[in-house]
Amino acid sequence: AGPCDIYDSGGTPCVAAHSTTRALYGSYTGPLYQVKRGSDGATIDIAPLSAGGVANAASQDTFCAGTTCLISIIYDQSGRKNHLTQAPPGGFKGPEANGYDNLASAVGAPVTLNGKKAYGVFVSPGTGYRNNAPNGIATGDAAEGMYAVFDGTHFNSGCCFDYGNAETNNLDTGNGHMEALYFGTNSAWGSGAGSGPWIMADLENGLFSGANPKNNGGDPSITHRFLTSVLKGGPNKWAIRGGNAASGSLSTFYDGARPNASGYNPMKKEGAIILGIGGDNSVSAQGTFYEGVMTSGYPSDSTENAVQADIVAAGYATAPLTSGPTLSVGSSVSLRAITACCTARYLAHSGSTVNTQIVSGSSSSNLKRQATWTVRSGLGNSNCVSFESLDSPGSYIRHYDFVLQLNANDGSKAFAEDATFCPQTGLGQSSLGTTSSVRAWGYPTRFFRHYANVTYVASNGGVHEFDAASLFNDDASWVVGAGFA
Ligand code: AHR
Ligand code: AHR
Q1: How far is residue 343's CA from residue 432's CA, in Å, rounded to a whole number?
Q2: Which atom of ligand 2 is the closest one to the Cα of 417?
């Protein structure tokens, strides 16, 4: 049995069931998600290995070998065709052509479930999915429940990393027009105990943690690496629950009346489904989604407790974020370009500009030092790395507006994350040696790429000039060797 079999038994069936990691019904054998590859735009559906089982990640890896892949559809397993696809513009525009949001990288959130590899949905700022033509999702004041498994260590304070019920027209249509799980540190509306992140309810024009529309000490800061978050709402009642998705049980953080603010009782839910964005397509938030469902009817606590036991039994665990040649922490390295134009060039810097420069054994010692990097444990995630400049200790390569820069570490969360990169098996091949591509941890569709000898984190075929698909694999691949100095 899976979570949706449990909700069925409880009389509150799933009306949407989304997961890129596993089937959510014991008998489900259909597609979980679709990926689209950068090399030719072809797509493939990824299905469970067996009925009710874990996603066939190997079929994705084979299909995406030597190129980039995006998650283009997250299928609804409930049979109601409530699939999630690239979100369109609304009150706010996304970064892609015509104001659409970005699609997530297919490789940003690797995990294992009971030892079997799978991939979650890594939402960077700008990424969003939506369904505006839902079938069977609660509207008006009708009761519903939902849960999602998130990465409790991946969040920010932007609006709004949400999963759940939202407007059908991508606009803020007023208080009570949404009912979605929120996860993060946004405190512009409500907040909980400590400094967050918190599980809250996005009910439109407000993130709520209890009856008080502002702070409620009963909603704890919660950072489990795998986080179960639960929200349910019916006529003048609602609840927030949560716990560790890898062990133990759920706790109830709020259970009571609708917030003490006008417009939220009765609710005016519209029944569209969002993932990674606010109801009006606010696109500033980040987070990671592994699985989630929405139900018809108000699930009992005991039904949710049984779902939590099923999630724990699924055996979520971390998987490596890196692959290919190891970049050892503490080592001194150079990164050589492999594109035919540029094989004499290495990743270097001139002041705060990060670029490629022609470097050889006979170069000046200054230039050699400018092209030598000390590998550090990733400032924003210790499973990846950061690159400290040999000649400017305390300064690291970071991206800003997707341009690489050399900046002093200011100690902020944003700097740490912008300076964290995950080396992986190179996208392009070279006779110069084994290659690596260097993925931006926080924007896993993006890789170190040289373009006109300046360096960026670029996405394959994205909207910037430096994202050009032509020569992408070669420009985004490097031979990592010993440092020059
Ligand atoms: O309720 C918080 C946010 O406010 C909603 O997600 C968005 O639609 C509005 O900007
Ligand atoms: O490089 C992309 C983003 O640009 C960085 O994350 C942020 O610091 C800046 O706004």
Answers
A1: 9
A2: 6
Q: Counting Cβ atoms within 10 Å, is residue 188 exposed (0-12), middle (13-18) or buried (19+)?
A: exposed
Per-residue pLDDT at 88: 98
User: Counting ligands in written order, which one lies closest to the CA of residue 398?
Assistant: 2
User: CA–CA separation, 462 vs 447, rounded Å?
Assistant: 12
Model confidence pLDDT, tens digit, residues 366-404 = 999 999 999 999 999 999 999 999 999 999 999 999 999
Q: Which of 402, 446, 454, 455 has most ligand 2 atoms within 8 Å of its beta carbon, as the pocket-test mutant?
A: 402
Task: Please choose from 284, 418, 448 the residue to mutate so as to test ligand 2's pocket, defined by most ligand atoms within 8 A of CB.
Answer: 418
Q: Residues near 325 by Cβ (< 8 Å), separated by ≥ 6?
A: 423, 434, 436, 480
Residue in 101, 162, 202, 280 annotated catalytic: 280
Q: Which residues contact 53 (CB under 8 A, 6 or more apart)?
A: 22, 23, 116
| 451-476 pLDDT tens trace | 999 999 999 999 999 999 999 999 99
Confidence at 232, pLDDT banded by 50, 70, 90: very high
Report CA-CA distances (Å) from 88 to 14, 116, 285: 25, 34, 16
Give the residue among 483, 473, 390 at the shortest CA–CA distance from 428.
473
Question: How far does residue 407's CA lie from ligand 2's centre (Å)?
Answer: 13
Residue 480's φ and ψ, nearest 5 degrees, are -85, 125
Give pLDDT tens digits for 38-51: 999 999 999 999 99
Measure 305 CA to ligand 2 centroid, in angstroms. Answer: 39
- Residue 280 annotated in active site: yes
291 in catalytic set: no
Distance 3 CA to ligand 1 centre (A): 29
